[in-house]
Amino acid sequence: LDQHLAGRGWPTDGLVELLLPRAGIGELRLLIPALQHISQKQWVMWVNPPFVPYALGLQAWGINLRHQLVVRTTTHADTPCAIERSSKSACCGIVLAWPEEPQLSLKDTRRLQLAARSGRSLSLLFRPLNASNKASLAEVRMALQPGEDADTLSIDILKRKGGWPLTGLHIPLSQATGI
């Protein structure tokens, strides 16, 4: 995957969208190297994760548990605000967020993109696959599908810096994570 992204890996700051048919298809395993690196010195913010992050699993992956924060918002207006403030904060290196899809607007993605840039953080939005039909100002957009076996993800890069869209990537998760 790194060879297909500008800078040979996940951006160090900015807005990235991962579009999924459902949560739990292995999407977080793509992020393990970034989470390992960032969690050593900066906070990892989880905004409205669909499941409680499994501490023992994160620890087994070498992710620093002392730098994990989970935020649950109660209204749609609070969600972009929490993502924006976390992204602007110099202490959050990565923000993982699951916003309420129907209310998320192009204006919201612009605000989140600017916040991530100004705070020098990586903000990842986990959105449903049908969000690919909506405009977004994320620098990178990827559609993820479960692969033919439990260890593989099928990835279509819908938008990326420095390149055209790319479809049909099959990434073995064990290779992506080293686990």
Short descriptors:
alpha/beta, 5 helices, globular, single chain, 25% helix, eight-stranded mixed beta sheet, 8 strands, 179 residues
Instruction: Indicate the structural class.
Output: alpha/beta
Distance between the termini: 16 Å
Using DSSP, what is the number of strands?
A: 8
User: Which bin fits the share of residues in helices?
Assistant: 10-25%
Strand order of the largest sheet: 3-2-4-5-1-6-7-8
Beta fraction: 25-35%
Count the helices. How many?
A: 5
Low-confidence stretches: none
Rounded to an integer in angstroms, the radius of gyration calculated over CA atoms is 15 Å
Order of helices and strands: EHEHEHEHEEEEH
The largest sheet is:
8 strands, mixed
Shape: globular
Mean pLDDT across all amino acids: 90
Explain the overall architecture.
It is globular, with a radius of gyration of 15 Å. The chain has 5 helices and 8 strands. The longest helix has 14 residues, at 106-119. The two termini are 16 Å apart. The relative contact order is 0.23. 25% of the residues lie in helices and 28% in strands. With 179 residues, it is of the alpha/beta class.
